[in-house]
Amino acid sequence: MNELAKISPSLLALIDERKDERPPLAREVFLVETVLRDTSYNRTESVFYMLKEGTEVEMRAVPDSDRGPLAVEVVWNDTSLGWLPEGQDGIFSALLAAGKRFVCRISRAKQYNEFLTERPMAKITVKISMLE
Questions:
Q1: 42 within 8 A of 82, measured Cβ to Cβ
Q2: Strand partners of residue 72
Q3: How far apart are CA 37 and CA 65, in angstroms?
Q4: Of 17, 28, 125, 131, which cross-links 101 as Cys (Cβ 3.0–4.6 Å)?
Q5: pLDDT for 11-34, tens place per residue?
């Protein structure tokens, strides 16, 4: 059988060490579009206007947070944008702990004033895909 390339243990180790990059030939499998909870315009004000459709953000499992042991935070440039909703956070927390890789992108970011207090609020919607 003709091989295009010899796959050696050192080549596999090199591919495995690239944690911040996408694996070669990976494809994105769309899973869900969801609205983040606990978003606050005051917290995201410094980056809010940079959050355009398609902006890639990071999901982090935060087991020691006050939101519970399965909480997943969504972050962009070290700014917390919000948290995955309860019910979805446990699934993604377990998959992140198992080493699964995801791509999370902004699909909508909207500012509005809260009805009673007139405080500025942020509504951020993300699309999550798994790398396969």
A1: no
A2: 61
A3: 14
A4: 131
A5: 555 555 545 566 667 789 999 999
CA–CA gap between residue 70 and residue 86 (Å, rounded): 9
Distance CA 20, CA 96 (A): 14
The CATH number of 31-131, from 1.10.10.10, 3.30.70.2330, 3.60.20.10, 3.40.50.2300, is: 3.30.70.2330
Distance CA 82, CA 32 (A): 16
28-35 and 120-131 strand pairing = antiparallel
**Within a 13 Å sphere around the CA of 127, how many CA atoms are in the beta-carbon half?**
13
Q: Are strands 102-113 and 56-61 parallel, antiparallel or unpaired?
A: antiparallel
CA dihedral 115, 104, 94, 60 (to 10 degrees): -80
- pLDDT given for residue 38 in this prediction: 85
pTM: 0.76
**pLDDT on residue 34:** 96
